[in-house]
Amino acid sequence: MGDSRHQLFRQFTAGQWHGFRKGVEKEGLRADARGFIAQTPHPRALGSTLTHPRITTDYSESLLELITPVCDSTEALLESLWETHHFVHQHLGDEVFWAASMPCELDGDPSIPIAEYGSSNVGQLKHVYRQGLAVRYGRMMQSIAGAHYNLSFPDSFWQQWQQALGDGRSLQDFKSDQYFWLVRNFRRRSWLLMLLFGASPALDASFVDGVSHHLERFDDHTWFGAAATSLRMGDLGYHNNAQASLNICFNELKTYTNTLAQAIRTPWPAYEKIGTRDGDRFIQINTSILQIENEYYSAIRPKRTTEREEKPIQALDARGVEYVEVRCLDLDPFSPLGVSAGQLDFLDLFLLDCLLSDSGWIDDDECVHLDDNYKDVVSRGRDQNLNLACRNQPMPLMDAARRLVDGLAPLAEQLDQWQGGDRYRRALAEQADKLTDTGRLPSARVLAAMREEGLGHRDWVMAMSQRHQAAFRSQALAPATQQAYERMTEASLAEQAAIEAAETQSFEDYLADYLSDR
């Protein structure tokens, strides 16, 4: 079936292919001039974190999140991300935008401020949710940053693809089914992304102060994994025994949303013991396995844009899957934007092939193998002796990686023929080179650069962050772009003020209504 899907796709013409729709959400810490996590509030000059369309915060007040609009080309996406970065750097003073996924210097949980979103009920809900994350997992994980890549296909493609497959369902149901088809293959292959793009093999010693781990000493202030690709995605990152009980393997929309909904309604004893309040202060939304859908951490999520006050599950159930969100990408510390053109083009190719290749349902046994493959590459992906479980047979990691990368060549050639140029062949060659010379893997490059410059994680990332900042500050935004960002700041602050002024319900009543709708 997989080969036949590729054959059907090859029968498309250049005029029938309208490309990808894409966006990035890039996180990054603010750090002070000493390389310590910023203790200052979100800069007012960057607008309201509740309502700004491009600039917000993730879990921590110090953890910026920059959001691109939906773009139809890599160039447009990177231009938007560059402009937002440029505007942010204007307003950081002597702080820097931390270039790596693993954080700068910390001093335990109290040093990591929880994000604030104002006095409105929706703003308070966002804050309480983050308080819940703090009491459930501790605040240290809230200092880790990454990049999320959002990808979809235009309806013109889906209509032609549905016709090619002879599918008679509604377009909405067909799209959801096909996105889950893609997601299942992503789950089978996501280890490859950790090998090619994992860029967090080291961390500051303050992150693991008092924590048991198996890392090696780099210097007095740095620990590292000798063969690790991504400490961010390993056991030191966001993990949780309560979530492990969910066993979501992403076979279809109905079971996915039902499982998440059940988790939001199912109490978890450890969270019940904590309770939802500390005196009069709310510290969790609820005491269930998940407070809300977004608490479930996975390398990929099927998504649907929500309406105001609508919950993600409700949006998916009502209108189906709109796009997929790839969540496992480390920041590229060598790039001022944290991502690169070649990386995004490769992801387009990789995700399209996930859609076009055979994709049976994932049973429980396969789910275990997939999780093990992913964890192994995260923790020791540069170990030359590492084997993966491929179709229940052991295969050397590099052999499995070359097989997947080489298998993308016909698709890259086809897209380049349709669009002109050699964009996808170049992106593919860039990744193939990493498999020929593993010293080109980002995780290897980070450690090599640290050794060459004689710097530990904190000092090396600080130096990279300062270089990126100097590059942005040496240029000026076009006047019209500068004015557009200043207008966004003013409009977002005004919108937050209007929401707060219109509030009539107490937060306690608002939260009760929110929970009753679950």
From TrEMBL:
Q: Which organism is it from?
A: Marinobacter xestospongiae
Record-linked NCBIfam families: glu_cys_ligase (TIGR01434)
EC numbers: 6.3.2.2
The name of this protein is: Glutamate--cysteine ligase
Quote the InterPro entries the UniProt record gives.
Gln_synth/guanido_kin_cat_dom, Glu_cys_ligase, Glut_cys_ligase
Family stated for the protein in its record: Belongs to the glutamate--cysteine ligase type 1 family. Type 1 subfamily.
Q: What metabolic or biological pathway is this protein involved in?
A: Sulfur metabolism; glutathione biosynthesis; glutathione from L-cysteine and L-glutamate: step 1/2
User: What is the enzyme's class at the highest EC level?
Assistant: ligase
Can the keyword Ligase be found in this entry's annotation? Answer: yes
| Molecular function terms, GO-annotated | glutamate-cysteine ligase activity
Q: Which Pfam families match?
A: Glu_cys_ligase
Which SUPFAM superfamilies does UniProt cross-reference here?
Glutamine synthetase/guanido kinase (SSF55931)
Catalysed reaction(s) here are: L-cysteine + L-glutamate + ATP = gamma-L-glutamyl-L-cysteine + ADP + phosphate + H(+)
Q: Which UniProt keywords apply?
A: ATP-binding, Glutathione biosynthesis, Ligase, Nucleotide-binding
Could you tell me which PANTHER family the record lists for this protein?
Answer: GLUTAMATE--CYSTEINE LIGASE
Q: What region holds the Glutamate--cysteine ligase domain?
A: 14-377
